[in-house]
């Protein structure tokens, strides 16, 4: 008899005995006394079982055992009892998790169709894309220099072993400076035909980790290794416990990676093989279980631990997947990578070149023809949206509307951007907008009966529909965040500068994108993402 059955057998027996006692009593007072005794015994047994269950959970955590994965405890998990059934395509040994928490923001202007090749004249590499880098890195080129894709452009003076390389070939036209003579961006006028630095890749069957690390450092791909905690470029002296790759995104208007992997299956597999050498643990692949079948290019990948995820946003966030498969504990360090970064790494071995080509989704209600574009890292935003915007009242966002950064047509895409979102600039005042449901908008509030139109796509705008107010406990964050943390308490610990509470409340597991949906639903209109970054920077500075 399993644990759940034993528990219910005990409860049933107690209830039966109490009812039997009731039946034997001959008067009302005896009935009442025996009833109270039965209830008391039931409560006592429940209290003892609950205490035992908590002690088992605590001991499991001390020993580093995942209580959810190994079903520790006496009581069954109610969420698991009513969760979505495992899809048939999930094989034995592969994980599956269905999230009930989350919130999908369905916006008009989703990019679909075939990939278009757009010739962009200028590209840029921006030191500001890399958290923690010194504001004035060592620049290795000057205006007028000719470079090839993969040539070194600059390195961080704090970490000189990590080289940052050119995404394209062409002429360096400007080393643009910002405040206090910091380096804002290195701009390259691209050749019509991109030429690549020749790279002789080692044999993955014989190479060891140290040699492979040196190869990655020399050829510019180390900047693609994102480290958690702190969400920074990985420390070259630390071996990650595990490496995580999410193969899908649930963010609004996100790029569909099934388009990206098509034709790049061999490069992706080779990249995964290389990553397996860089960790003492496993390479975890997060796959999309929301459809009828997984993407074949990802599902057929070997040498990885596969975990399937289903649910609303942020189910596709790698941070959510880490938390629900192999959480970061204590001094653990893990790496994360984007699908297209893995392909770039793989092409070092399959094609012998640093190929920083990127597939970008350009979408949003303000885009005349939402499209999927093939370009290179750091492409000029104006070239990507030229002649494709409906009017001048636009907010151009590099990334998704929840966690992206505002940009302009004169700017360049960031190092990790695979999406441009364009929505209406909400600079108008809506009288009594907080009181009257004048027009449909994405919201978790019951004021708008959005549940009646589950497939409706909204035309997003930048109005906040509210103002900053008291930061009160509401439970809103927990309702949309599928993580076992208390984000509101964490935010208050950051504001108070309480390092111990920050760590205890799970700050090391988080990145800004994980709290983006919490910021969206926040009644208090708190800047949760910037608060989290402030806390992460404090923790990193404190060592």
Kindly describe this structure.
The chain has 543 residues and is of the alpha/beta class. Among the domains are: 3-82; 464-543, no CATH class. The chain contains 15 helices and 20 strands. It has helices spanning 3-24, 28-62, 78-81, 209-218, 257-261, 265-278, 296-299, 318-325, 339-350, 381-385, 476-480, 487-496, 499-504, 512-521, 528-542; strands spanning 95-98, 115-117, 122-125, 138-139, 146-147, 152-155, 163-165, 170-177, 183-190, 226-228, 232-233, 242-246, 283-288, 305-310, 334-337, 357-363, 371-376, 394-398, 405-407, 419-424. The strands form four sheets. The chain has a seven-stranded mixed beta sheet. A six-stranded mixed beta sheet has the order 2-17-16-20-18-19. A four-stranded antiparallel beta sheet has the order 3-9-8-5, with no helix packed on it. The radius of gyration is 27 Å and the shape is globular. Residues 1-5 have low confidence and may be disordered.
